[in-house]
Predict the structure.
Amino acid sequence: MNILILTHSYPDINNKWRGVFIQEQAKALCLANDITVVYFKVDYTHFAPFSKYSFHKKTEGKITVFEVTVNKSFPVITQLKYLSDTYRFIRKEILNQKRIDIIHSHLSYPAGFLGTIIQKRKNIPNVVTEHSWITRYFRSRIHKMCVLYTFKNSYCIIAVSKALREDIIKYVNHEVKIVPNVVDVEKFRIPETRKREILNIGLLGGMGNFRKGLDILLKSVSLLKNTDLLVHIGGDGIYLETFKKMSVELGIREKCKFYGEILPSEINNFYSGLDIYVLASRDETFGVVIVEAMSCGLPVIATRCGGPEEIITHETGVLVEKENPDELARAIVSVSDNLGSYDRDLIRRYALEKYGREAFVAEITRIYQEVISASTTAR
């Protein structure tokens, strides 16, 4: 199949982590399909309301990626120009050059909305995978209308978890399928077993807000007065210094190791230094880091914040309530005391069988075939 992936979130030179879960889907699909990715964005640093879009073409293995940039314009006009310029680019540089069998748009706005417009005009079916809570798009009445238009008119809507599907079906009156994010389990490995003098726990995530719950984890660690441990903290953002200061105020600075940004090439080494992975998030629609940690055979402690409830089992870790440092602290002690009862090979096998490339490709291919068949019949 010739698949066109649309997204405004994709790794680039400035942010190697942005939309990496979309890149992983493209990598999985390219093994048996022709994949073209259009990653489009607005350059808000350059005000040029009458300028033409620019684009850069690159090849990532078997994937062709077009990075389309639209310059900032006047308020409201920027969004209109963003969509119209990207549409013109796709029509000229892709649709006029090759046959596309199906469009796969990631995130209902702007990609899902744009994919639906192309579907209407070019009779190419559009599949939308949603990764985010829907109300986050409702920052204006127009944005809400665009999202609801996407849901109403796309051939298929996919959520990455049951929790997200429940959020979406409040606004749609037809089926929402579930296809979890794919993780390249093969790039992770179970580290060699070695005797550790202290307990090593870790958290990996952006420090641009408090959503990952690092403040909750730090408070939990401060309660573990008699536990000899080290907290490995990976990630960068505007609140990194705030969290460092918090660790000092809580009297646990010597128990915290802040790494800053962890590059994709270094992530396996980060997990390899841990005994337990902790996700203290306030909300997650999925939880890619959980599956990555499991791919290294790590037991996981995660909050009940959406996606993790569908990933964690009693054999792979423990779930705790969010915003509860006391319960999280007790879970850290409990899992630490029972580390030997967790089968690392079983944990990794679970991640591979449920979230590996083979499972993802089989399910998404089935959906593609159903959509293409239905769209052909409807013409």
About this structure: The longest strand covers residues 34-47.
